[in-house]
Write a structure and sequence with these properties.
The complex is a heterodimer.
Chain A (H helix, E strand, L loop, with lengths): L1 H14 L3 H45 L1 E6 L15 H14 L11 E6 L3 E4 L4 E9 L8 E4 L6 E4 H7 L6 E6 L6 E9 L20 E2 L6 E2 L4 E4 L1 H11 L3 E7 L7 H19 L4 H9 L5 E3 L2 H44 L1 H9 L4 H34 L9 H31 L5 H9 L2 H18 L11 H27 L2 H4 L4 H11 L4 H38 L3 E5 L12 E13 L3 E8 L1 H4 L14 H9 L6 E6 L4 H6 L3 E5 L4 E10 L11 E5 H10 L4 H4 L1 E6 L3 H11 L10 E2 H5 L2 H38 L1 H9 L4 H35 L18 H28 L2 H8 L1
Parallel strand pairs in A: 4-11, 6-8, 16-20, 17-19
Antiparallel strand pairs in A: 1-12, 1-13, 2-4, 2-12, 3-4, 3-7, 5-8, 7-8, 9-10, 14-21, 14-22, 15-16, 15-18, 15-21, 17-20, 18-19
Chain B lengths: L8 E12 L2 E13 L4 E5 L6 H8 L7 E6 L2 E2 L5 H11 E4 L3 H4 L6 H12 L3 H14 L15 H13 L5 E5 L7 H16 L4 E4 L3 H5 L3 E6 L2 E7 L2 E3 L12 H4 L8 E4 L4 E4 L3
Parallel strand pairs in B: 3-8, 3-9, 6-7, 7-8
Antiparallel strand pairs in B: 1-2, 1-4, 4-5, 9-10, 10-11, 12-13
Helix pairs in contact in B: 4-5, 4-6, 6-7
The chains are: A alpha+beta, B alpha/beta.
Keywords (chain B): ATP-binding, Nucleotide-binding, Transport
GO molecular function (chain B): ATP binding; ATP hydrolysis activity; transmembrane transporter activity
Organism (chain B): Blastococcus saxobsidens
Chain lengths: 902, 276
Amino acid sequence: MITIRAALRHLRLRLLPVPGQALGLVVLVAVLAAALVSAPLMVASAEQGAWEQERDRLSETVLGATLGTTTQARRQRTSDTRISRATELDEAVTEAARRARVDQDGLGLPETIGFLMDPILFTGPEGGGYAQLVFRTGSFEGLEIVAGQATDTGVLIPQRMAERSGLGPGDRLPVTPSMRPGGAELVVGGVYADLTTPLPETWQPHSFLFLPRLDERSGNLVHPPPAVLAPRDTAVATAAALEEHLFLEWFLPLDPGLPVAVARDAVGATQRMQAAIASPESAVSRLVDEEGYQTPVGRTALPTALETVDTTGTLLEPPVRAVGIGGGVAALVLVGAWAAQRMRRREDEQRSLVARGLSPARGAGQAAREAVLPVLLGLAAGGAIGWLLVQRLGPADTIPPGVLGRSLAVLAGGGIAAVAVVAVVTAVLVTRLDSIGSGQAAHVLARVPWLAITAVLAVVATVPLFTAEPAAEGGGIDVLTLVVPLLITVVVAGALTAALPRLATGPGGRLRRLPVGPFLAARRVLAGQGAARLVVVTTALSLGLVVYAGALGSSTDRTIATKAAVATGSDVVVPIGADTTGRELPPGAMVVGVEREATLLPGAARVNVLVVRPDAVAGVVRWDEGLADRPLDELMTALAGDGGQRVPVLVAGDVADGVVDGTDGELTLDFGYYSMPVQVVGRAEAFPGQSSSEPLVVAEWDAYLAAVEEAGRDPALVLAREVWSRGELVGVLDSLAATGYVPSAQDQPTTADAFTARPELTAQTWSLDYLRAVALAAGVLGLVGVTMHAVAQQRRRTVAGLLLRRMGMTDRAADVSAGLEIGLLAGLSALVAVVVALPASALVLRVLDPVPSLEPEAVFAVPWGSIAAVGAGVVLVTVIGSWLVGRTARRATGGQVMRDAT
Amino acid sequence: MRHDGTPAATCEGLVRIYWSPSGEVHALKGVDAVVPAGRLTAITGPSGSGKSSLLRILAAQDRPTAGRAEVAGHPLTGLSARRLRALRRRHIGYVFARPPQNLLPHLTGHEHLAMAARYRGVGRAEARREGAELLDLLGIAHRAEHLPGQLSGGEQQRLAFAQAVIGRPALVMADEPTSELDSATTADLLTAVSELTRTGTTVVMATHDPLAASAADQVIHLRSGAVSHEEVAGRRLAVIDGDGRVQLPEEALARFPARRVLIDVTGDGVVLREPS
């Protein structure tokens, strides 16, 4: 028992002789590990997040694979059995899917849907008409059967058809081809409730079977023939009997909640299935050969979605890696500082060992051995923290398991680097301990004007930020954007701390009038040398990073929101027919007119025209105050004013001031075949609806239409129309349908969400979020550094503190002094951080513009949250630091202090 | 440990110059000294006289700028840092002034000796045996399992000596080992150190303490970086260096305010007289 205890003690002495000191290393390595491991995890999480975004945006129905063919022959081949063998074809395709093992790679086995190429005629007791015969394998999900039931042979008819024809469950349903003689009879098994928007997800790709469509020529809604849902065999047999050809589709649904890695496998599975179908030995090929079917061809949006995911990952990885490595390097520097501190606190021990012949290598080996356990513990804690933080706060809740190996490799690398840093720093310090005097080289180094050199470096590094143009594909965080603010912070903080001792000579007399506590604190801060200066600089750096990252993040969020507002007008933009009218739109929506490719004279600037009702604009657009030097309501009031013979307009974008000022705003809009005099009543940097870099002329609705009519043109012909609305796309479409507006068949609706989901914007938002998280950790470390410095100072001042107490200084005055000193150091750092980081971020912001091709330019936002967090941190560290210092001072016993001091 | 009359260390014309921002500092200006083996030698002198510099060179922690120093038969001049470390490890023990500088707070007395023996390359069994003997000799055998914090100042310094002596180094250097001890404890420690020298250990001790100096077999007194005089067996001896320079005692120097003398070499000796 004693032997085991002795062995354990021996092991502890070798591995962990000073546990309290090792705790600091555990914390630092945890930060290092969290910073390093979070980079690959963040990239993986972003990949999964981008995939989830695409999955939500496109729906799993669109992302699933669909193969299609018809029973109509390719070329001029005839066969009597081609339609009836559609069942065989269906089974052959399903078998091919099974052989390709698609169900093991994220796809379901095919669900078949078939319908007639031409509608058929039906007759009922009370009337007849056209009908469409539809079958679908699997369940009729989303159908509400209101009478009867689905059977193996009977069909389901829609409620409206049942009411109109007088058919019901159990009735016979005679059907005939529309163009030929012949006939067949179906049995009605049940009646289902008519399907309306929103359709069940499984039916959405085939909405044309249920929902009306707009007839382009008449402008009227055309309802499809009622869909009679039949079992597959019944439908195929009926089609064969009527000699009506079928469209056949096989839908391979994507497994719900599929991770991105499996989604990539699904693409492979789709390709395997296509190859299995095309194989000459396959049953499908045999049927294609025998019956002349067209080979089923697949289509899926999955590769496109994955391309978007890859683009996001490609854009995100470099900045995240830069930030992660930067955080890791900073943490390694702190590990080095810890190693130096370890040597300092154990200087007696080390000096004694050096006197006995300790070599730098042996000292380094001892330090490395002592660092192993804390490093392992820190790696485990930091890895877990990094994983949890990315999982909770990252782009996706689930992190692809494939990243685990890479993360462990990164952790191992970080651990080895940490131990190596401890060893190298120790070796260097042991070497220094082993040498007497500092030598000539050290004197030369001490005379180098490091601050001036850093200042020159900062200036040189800043120049590209002034001269560089934003990259056409959008900017991102890189080494330059990370290093410049840090360099400037070092210079400013260094200059400030260098100037402090000079300040001490000036107001010295006034300081003496202060009470003891504040006087001591002020003198200690003003006379701060060495460590105190280093603390101010490093804390200013860490807090500066918090403010800088906050400013970049807030500004980019604001820039993206503003660009989205400008590019898309409102939350949802639905193009509608030029002459479409409807009832009054609900609040938060309005109709605007759009006319493109006009010329503004004089100056011949190419412009687009937006026609709005000024009173409705404020409730619909998302306006940023930075877009104009006047509030929106003032602009709209000006727009609604009387322009006399001219149409009042606002001009947004890059139109020369001289053109407007030189003509008193009296310009002409030239459309080539007619022109219009306009009066500029306001300017804006950009305006909602300005979806390109070309300037936008915003005109008042009634005045503009009157001018168009006066020019002898029909507004319905020259002015395209859009509905701009706040809210979600589905809700807006429902609302439009309810008010009688019909979306344009040619143009797709656009949304602000779709704009912000662009890979370059997503990548930048996420990378800046990551920078903010890393910066926050750096800020916390900086403030912890202030506290540790204060406690270390207190240890050094133990004797002086004891003497002061014996001279009558109260504990309260000592606490006030410590608190004020910590507060002043942290406050100075925070001041430098804010003063430097805000202009630095404003400077960098221009280069970071994620979509420089769109107005407006990057918009700056003051990061009030980050500034408040820094302020709160300073207060917190002041309170906690002064408490710790007070506790340390009171723990020292007078006798021991004086004995140690001799 | 040398018993053949060969000195444990010798210095000839030892010069040590340090660099500082304000210029060069000449800490040693040609010191000649011989440290006899198996004796206690004290180095005394006022602050700034060069005691610590001489001690560091004799302890192989530093190299002379000029001159010759030899420790345990090894000339220090020209030795690489690695060889200096090896010399320290095998042949030199060192005791700092303050007990916390010598001892690790988390090791017991036995563990200190075991670690020191490991550094010196002594086998485990030999270390255990020698350690027990040393602790017994120094009178702290009953405190062997205690941590430094549980020992008195005198006990800590005795443990520090035991740690420095284990493995029988040629030379044990002690930098003011009694500076933090009261006179009774100092006397006890000096008795213990005398016991060590009786077993053949050579000890060199820099000290301000007259009690410690009086216990030494030889006292080397430094003044302004040079040997002012030596005291051997109660007799004060001036030292003549290789260039014929000699430092006069303070009281003799006071007789020559003009710093000029007439030298008469007679059959009995050399007589210095003030020029008339």
